Amino acid sequence: MVIDIHAHVLRWPVLKKFNNGLPLMSAEEQVRRMDEKGIDKAVILPLTSAEVIGEPQSMGEVFDICRLYPGRFIPFCDFDVRRYDMNSAERYREVLEQYVARGAKGVGELTCRVYWDDPRLWNLFAACEDLGLPVTFHTSPPEAITYGLIDELGFPRFEKALQRFPNLRFFGHSASFWSEISGDLTADRKEGYPKTPVAPGGTLVRLFRTYPNLCGDLSAGSGFNALTRDPAFTYEFLDEFQDRLMLGLDHTDAELDFQHIEWLRARRDEGHIAPEVCEKILWRNADRIIGLGFAEWAGADGADRA
Ligand SMILES: [Zn+2]
């Protein structure tokens, strides 16, 4: 079993991305790529904020894709918390309950440009914590012209959210998240993909140790860079936080071909990553944390018996 916790999938992608002239992945392309890589199931993260790349997506479309490919996709739902009509935790609960009734298992990918301690964001977090829904986020620094929840070097505002919502699972993702793994990070490199060895004292390591509700989404070039920049560090990191790290890919177009699964399995085969740790990262943690229940359903080996 392999579960990808970070996919963007459209029913009929229309617009092409500015940077490479390709559209976001269609459901057909995504399923083909999943089959090539041996991925059983992928979480669909709709993108709905004003800053997103590509096309905003409706929940109707997400649920329709799940219906068209039974057993392949897990729906999350997304919000731009600046919406004037979503102005209380109660309002979020009303909407989330309707999405959950249709199968939604979490919230994200949050990409809107608000600070981590914005009360509008905390209304959403309060409702998610109440309903037991995890949240996948993209984060970036204040000065960047980009998307993602805003925080400065060292995550002072994100840490307040971790403290305020101890039962809310945060799935951390993006360059500005994973760069904080190293103790020598400077503000001007937060959005980057540092290739240097990981220096002791990284903010992320401290946050992972302090807050059991923090989980790692290893998707995209940012997650892969964090995995591969300093393998000796990575093996210890994966071991220490083996119950909270999850595979994701984040293929936003059909030309991308991230090598997370291949890299993890190669390091497992070399003896650097324990087989049970690899299994947890490839699917068991996602299954447990998102509450999918495939482990009980499929048997101890995770073989899909459907
Ligand atoms: Zn993404």
Describe this structure in words.
The protein is of the alpha/beta class and 306 residues long. The protein has a single domain, classed as TIM Barrel (Alpha-Beta Barrel). Helices cover 39% and strands 11% of the residues. The chain has twelve helices and nine strands. The strands form two sheets. Strands 4, 5, 6, 7, 8 and 9 form a six-stranded parallel β-sheet that branches. A three-stranded parallel β-sheet has the order 1-2-3. It is globular and about 45 Å long. The model has no long low-confidence stretch (mean pLDDT 94). The structure holds zinc ion.
List the topology elements.
Blueprint (H helix, E strand, L loop, with lengths): L2 E5 L19 H11 L3 E4 L14 H10 L4 E3 L13 H13 L5 E4 L8 H13 L3 E6 L8 E2 L5 H9 L5 E4 L1 H4 L24 H8 L3 E4 L2 H9 L2 H10 L4 E2 L13 H10 L5 H16 L3 H5 L8
Parallel strand pairs: 1-2, 2-3, 4-5, 5-6, 5-7, 7-8, 8-9
The protein binds zinc ion (ZN).
Zinc ion binds next to loops.
